[in-house]
Amino acid sequence: MSPVEEESQRAPNALPGGLAALWLLLLVLWIVFNASAAPAILLVGVLAAGVIAWIFTTRSAVWSDVRLTPLRLYHFLCYAGVFLVEMVKANLGMLRYVYAPRIDIHPGIVRIDLRLSSPIGRLALANSIALTPGSLVMDIDDDALFIHWLDVRTTDAELATEMIAGAFDKHLGKVFG
User: Fold this and answer.
1) Are 116 and 172 in contact (CB under 8 A)?
2) Distance (Å, rounded) from C-alpha 98 to C-alpha 57?
């Protein structure tokens, strides 16, 4: 059954799928960006996150498969840690290129295979790759991402997939499928 058919068969009072997960994610981001958990800031964050989550989950089927479970929350937190580590490593790599007396890079475009099936999982992976310095997602085609890699170390799709997306795939697959 397609997500649209599931949407139409849902009970009128039922909450949209993924509402709690998106609300929690937005609320945590609100608290982090505000660097405060003061009651007034929390209240605005709770309300803003709720409205935005409700709009996104009622207008799109993308979040319909996302359910908030302890295991998914655990893997999301692990993904966030992996992303942070990869971000630091990539920034240190860029620092090495910037301060090197001679820049020895081999830029190019590589193809990596997508192992994730859900649209939101693919979006999270593409954003994770694009946000780490030294790589940029140029195109998505069926089950492949084409990445501009600042220092191409391999053109083999399997090796490039493991080198670029391997750290994210494991946890994103458990969170989004």
Assistant:
1) yes
2) 43
